């Protein structure tokens, strides 16, 4: 049956209230349909008097009460468009922010400064608050490790505990999240003993210890907020620690039961901190420059700095302002950052393709009749990009050693094909397998109905077979893309019962549904909730959202 249209999606009436409640729990945004990145700047809007258009890190949503008061005090309305730090740096360097944003406000500008083109786009920058990347260790685990109160722990001790199987942790993806990137830089600098800017030989020297360190990573994420929420939902014995901003770890403790709370460990050999520099772009007009100065002046006032610290648990930057209660007054030394963009990108590529545990990813792809035409073309283009096309840093493609399964479904599963990407330097190298994946993607054809839940259950069966055959412990996830509502086969209740019956290793596999076209939000949110995944919004274009999900795999 070739369905050209599908039933309208049923919206869950309580979704907005649930998301609002979750947003209050941490200093990062709550889970829910995540809009695609905004590389073209279309969310920025047209320049208007008294409005400052800011490309920002998503964690700055927790500053909205302060920005509301700033509008009343200064007459400046801050209009935020959210994106990742590294992607934002690319947007600025390429000139795609010119005329679309007036300022940028990410956790750090260190990566942006490595590129001369990006550096020239920033007219001025002012740090507003500070939070180091730290390690939050479950208190019971801390006691087992014999680390006392955690105040004397080094990165080497953390790495040794991870390598010995005594410490498992979650960390966000360095290619997507600044907290993960900062953590990667910190451990590379600490393990290499670099006394100045991190170099390629330093990274090479640290590689054996880095490999041992990352054997302990059991959770990955594209954002600091989702990582914190995934930790809270994880089985107690599975994840014993989180690598994240100090502010996120302390905020999370506000919501956790006593036995899950984290002791924040700031390694004594140093950290890499986010200083949240509000940065004026050189392309900003005169009116926007004046608005920028008024806003900066307001944010640095002593009473405002005190409120920012109490609200977000980040440290104030204005001299004489005490940090919020619970924040240590002392600071760790800052570890050296890569000296060039080449070193930074090389470190990122090494993490993705060599250092971290490999991935097992299953894509469950709706190729029913309603996907025919432009929708199917968009799907092919988006997945095709993950095989290496249009990837300037080589960090978005399917990784070396990654196991990728494509499942095409409509009224039933049409076909399932699995590929394993070889490591770089092997014969044959990854290029031939990536081309083979792309060939399978381009072979997708649209016809039939939508047996969504049957096909999703098949994905779990495929993973079960793969895990038994390989006997490995990969980062495993399922991506579900659909443009409509399940109208054949198993129901949502059937899937819930199926999922309840899975063994714990499979039950913990997150599903990342993508809302596309007229997809049923209530069904997809239910799948994300049951599996511990996250719902993403394709917003009519799949390119950005498929790339964003890479941070969670």
Beta-strand portion reads 15-25%
**CATH superfamily caption of the largest domain:** von Willebrand factor, type A domain
Main pleated sheet: 7 strands, mixed
Helical content class: 25-40%
Distance between the termini: 34 Å
CATH-defined topology of the largest domain: Rossmann fold
Name given to the CATH architecture of the largest domain:
3-Layer(aba) Sandwich
**Could you tell me the mean pLDDT?**
88
Task: Tell me the number of strands.
Answer: 18
What low-confidence regions span 5 or more consecutive residues with pLDDT below 50?
1-43
Into how many domains do the coordinates divide?
3
Q: Work out the helix count.
A: 21
Computed CA radius of gyration, to the nearest angstrom: 23 Å
What class would the helix/strand composition place it in? alpha/beta
Q: Under the CATH scheme, which class of the largest domain? A: Alpha Beta
Overall shape: it is: globular
Short recap of the structure:
The protein has 21 helices and 18 strands.
What does this structure look like?
With 553 residues, the protein is α/β, with parallel strands linked by helices. The protein folds into three domains: 30-130 and 274-316, D-Maltodextrin-Binding Protein, domain 2 (3-Layer(aba) Sandwich), CATH 3.40.190; 131-273, D-Maltodextrin-Binding Protein, domain 2 (3-Layer(aba) Sandwich), CATH 3.40.190.10; 358-552, 3-Layer(aba) Sandwich (Rossmann fold). It is 39% helix and 17% strand. The strands form three sheets. Strands 5, 6, 7, 8, 9, 10 and 12 form a seven-stranded mixed β-sheet that branches. Helix 2 (64-74) packs across helix 12, helix 9 packs parallel to helix 14 (341-355) and helix 18 (492-500) runs parallel beside helix 20 (521-531). The longest helix has 19 residues, at 452-470. The radius of gyration is 23 Å and the shape is globular. The protein starts with 14 loop residues before the first helix and ends with a helix.
């Amino acid at each position: 049956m070739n369905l050209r249209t599908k039933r309208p999606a049923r919206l869950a009436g309580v979704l907005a209230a649930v998301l609002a409640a979750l947003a209050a729990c941490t200093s990062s945004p709550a889970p829910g349909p995540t809009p695609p990145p905004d590389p073209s700047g279309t969310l920025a809007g047209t320049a208007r008097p008294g409005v400052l258009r800011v490309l920002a890190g998503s964690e700055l949503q927790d500053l909205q009460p302060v920005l509301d008061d700033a509008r009343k005090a200064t007459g400046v309305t801050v209009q935020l468009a959210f994106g990742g730090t590294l992607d934002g740096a690319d947007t600025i360097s390429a000139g795609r922010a010119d005329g679309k944003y007036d300022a940028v406000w990410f956790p750090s500008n260190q990566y942006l400064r490595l590129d001369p083109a990006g550096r020239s786009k920033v007219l001025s920058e002012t740090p507003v608050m500070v939070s180091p990347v730290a390690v939050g260790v479950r208190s019971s685990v801390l006691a087992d490790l014999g680390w006392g109160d955690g105040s004397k722990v080094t990165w080497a001790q953390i790495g040794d505990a991870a390598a010995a199987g005594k410490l498992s942790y979650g960390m966000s993806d360095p290619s997507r999240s600044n907290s993960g990137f900062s953590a990667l830089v910190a451990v590379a600098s600490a393990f290499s003993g670099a006394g100045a800017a991190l170099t390629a030989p330093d990274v090479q020297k640290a590689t054996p210890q880095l490999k041992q360190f990352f054997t302990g990573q059991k959770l990955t994420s594209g954002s600091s907020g989702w990582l914190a929420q995934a930790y809270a939902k994880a089985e107690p014995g599975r994840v014993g620690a989180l690598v994240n901003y100090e502010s996120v770890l302390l905020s999370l403790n506000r919501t956790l039961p006593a036995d899950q709370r984290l002791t924040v460990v700031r390694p004594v050999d140093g950290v890499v901190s986010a200083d949240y520099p509000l940065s004026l772009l050189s392309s900003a007009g005169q009116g926007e420059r004046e608005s920028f100065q008024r806003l900066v002046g307001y944010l640095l006032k002593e009473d405002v700095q005190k409120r920012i610290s109490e609200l977000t648990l980040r440290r104030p930057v204005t001299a004489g302002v005490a940090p919020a209660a619970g924040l240590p007054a002392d600071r760790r030394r800052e570890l050296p950052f890569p000296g060039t963009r080449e070193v930074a990108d090389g470190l990122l590529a090494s993490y993705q393709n060599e250092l971290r545990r490999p991935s097992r990813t299953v894509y469950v792809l709706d190729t029913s009749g309603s996907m025919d035409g432009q929708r199917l073309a968009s799907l092919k283009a988006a997945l095709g990009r993950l095989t290496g096309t249009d990837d300037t840093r080589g960090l978005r493609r399917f990784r070396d050693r990654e196991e990728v399964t494509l499942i095409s479904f409509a009224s039933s599963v049409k076909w399932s094909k699995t590929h394993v990407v070889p490591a770089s330097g092997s014969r044959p190298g990854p290029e031939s397998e990536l081309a083979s994946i792309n060939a399978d993607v381009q072979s997708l054809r649209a016809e039939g109905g939508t047996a969504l839940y049957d096909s999703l259950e098949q994905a779990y069966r495929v993973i079960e077979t793969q895990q038994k055959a390989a006997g490995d412990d990969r980062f495993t996830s399922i991506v579900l893309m659909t443009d409509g509502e399940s109208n054949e086969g198993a129901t949502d209740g059937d899937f819930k019962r199926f999922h309840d019956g899975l063994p714990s290793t499979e039950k913990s596999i997150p599903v990342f549904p993508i809302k596309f076209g007229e997809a049923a939000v209530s069904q997809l949110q239910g799948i994300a909730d049951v599996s511990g995944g996250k719902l993403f919004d394709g917003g009519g274009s799949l390119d950005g959202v498929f790339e964003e999900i890479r941070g969670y795999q």
